[in-house]
Specification:
The chain is an alpha/beta fold. It is about 40% helix and about 20% strand. The protein has two domains: about 5-170 and about 220-280, Vaccinia Virus protein VP39 (Rossmann fold, 3-Layer(aba) Sandwich); about 170-215, no CATH class. β11 (about 240-245) and β12 form a beta hairpin. The two termini are about 40 Å apart. The chain binds S-adenosylmethionine (SAM). S-adenosylmethionine binds near residues 65, 85, 136 and 138.
């Protein structure tokens, strides 16, 4: 048994709670469709993790996203757990052993490659299959080309945890991104035009007379909206993003759902609004 663990904070548990609530709604709806036209529905965890993270401030394990999906009833027909790191793969195999009656496909490697080369070609529209993909990276690992390929397949909903902090870290205060940084942002966001809107020439020269660019105060909602709008060019419906913050109220990620199905997004918006109301009360 792997001795390593991931430590996660309160906001990650809240994210997992939101995912689980949506998964329960998803399986209920898809199971009904199975009595009509649908052949199979898949859960694809593209950044699966270890399956059993530990709470940061307490001695307790938390159910990670793969376990939450496995616990859903009615259950998914197929589960894909994709993960880069070997020890987490080992931990996922231990989890798989606890659910011998489920079809679990564990893949080690970069999820962009595995999604584009394997998963998308198996969950096809013509074969009447559908899937929910959870994109939960630490940083800027989800390539725009992958999101585009998932959208074009017309069979997937994507539940995205978009790393706001990782993007803002690349945006310097005094000059717009260039070269490799610009390429990286473009590879993830699929568009770089918005960068031109957040930098402006200084109204005055500084004390030393440099002509530096000045970055406007960057609001998390604004950045989340840019990415959500961008995804909206590929998917027919995108939920309202929810900004996840750490214990100091610093925005870290934006969560949202993109789908070709209106009802899916309506359900997600309902879950998010309920969460935001409760969060307000708790503050
Ligand atoms: C935020 S964690 C996932 C947590 C998990 N979804 C959960 O909620 O329990 C991100 C994971 O992605 C893995 N990872 C990083 N880059 C990856 C890539 N390119 N493809 C697949 N997995 C990757 C990391 O090893 C890490 O376990």
């Amino acid at each position: 048994m792997s001795k390593k663990v991931n430590l996660i904070g309160r906001w990650s548990e809240e994210k997992l709670g939101l995912l689980e609530e949506y998964l329960r709604a998803y399986v209920t709806i898809m199971n009904k469709q199975k009595q009509r036209w649908l052949r199979a529905y898949h859960y694809i965890d593209a950044f699966a993790g270890s399956g059993r993270p530990k709470a940061k401030d307490e001695e307790r394990y938390v159910a990670g996203s793969p376990l939450r999906a496995l616990r859903c009833e009615p259950h998914f027909d197929v589960y894909w757990f994709i993960e880069l790191s070997p020890w987490r793969i080992e931990s996922l195999q231990e989890l798989q052993a606890q659910f011998p009656d489920r079809e679990v496909r564990i893949r080690q490697g970069d999820c962009n490659t595995i999604l584009r080369q394997e998963v998308i070609s198996q969950v096809t529209y013509a074969s009447r299959q559908r899937g929910l993909v959870f994109l939960d990276p630490y940083g800027l690992q989800v390539e725009w080309a992958t999101v585009r390929a998932l959208a074009r397949a017309k069979t997937f909903d994507i539940f995205v945890n978009f790393p706001l902090m990782a993007v803002t870290r690349l945006l310097k205060r005094d000059e717009p991104p260039k070269g490799k940084v610009k390429d990286r942002l473009n590879k993830v966001m699929g568009n770089i035009e918005w960068v031109g809107r957040i930098y402006r020439p200084p109204e005055q020269l500084s004390l030393f007379g440099e002509r530096l660019m000045v970055r406007d105060v960057m609001r998390a909602e604004w950045l989340a909206r840019i990415y959500a709008d961008q995804i909206g060019t590929l998917f027919s419906f995108v939920s309202k993003p929810v900004i996840m913050v750490n214990s100091k109220n610093v925005p870290l990620y934006a969560l949202f759902l993109a789908s070709h199905n209106k009802t899916a997004v309506k359900i997600m918006n309902y879950i998010f609004e309920k969460y935001e109301r409760l969060r307000e009360v708790g503050r």
